[in-house]
Amino acid sequence: MFSLHQLSLDLYSSSRLLIQLIQSILKEHNLTYPQYLTMKVLWEEDGILVKEIGERLHLDSGTLTPLIKKLERVNYVKRHRGDSDERTVHVELTYPGKSLESKVKQSLLPLEEKLNEVTNLDLAELNHSLQNLLESFNSLKNSSQT
Asked: Any long-range contacts for 103-107 (C-beta under 8 Å, 24+ apart)?
């Protein structure tokens, strides 16, 4: 029988452990996990608004702004305000930020290979299922707020 408690516990525990494994690798690049996620969004699409990064990561600007400021201090990104609307902030990768992508990807590759070995799961299929689950949770959240 389905147990909401067990599902939430399994998701929580699995995500915490996976993030810890990733974080231990990211340390060598002086990145935290949330900074890595932000960089990952920018590696996929450079020069986007802070608001768009927040939407993709499900983070509010109060969480995201200090994170981006720190990435700017280490010269991985640069921010600039919109010409027509100063409330909008664009974030672009710097050269060091762009070159970091291949280094991080290379560092994470052994973990990805180990996960493929030990899980006996199709990780792409699992990822797709988790994305569907996230969309369902967002729908539930949005419907409960109206």
From this structure: 103/29, 104/26, 104/29, 104/31, 104/36, 104/39, 107/25, 107/26, 107/28, 107/29
d(C-alpha 123, C-alpha 129), whole Å: 10
Integer CA distances (angstroms), 145 to 2, 63, 64, in order: 25, 21, 23
Whose CA is closest to 105, among 26, 23, 16, 20? 26
Q: How far apart are CA 144 and CA 9, in angstroms?
A: 22
- Note the pLDDT tens digit of each residue in 42-69: 999 999 999 999 999 999 989 999 999 9
pTM of the full structure: 0.85
Domain boundaries, the chain: 4-144
Looking from the CA of 38 toward its CB, the CA atoms found within 13 Å total 29
Provide CATH code, domain 4-144: 1.10.10.10
Please give the share of the chain, as a percent, with pLDDT higher than 70: 99
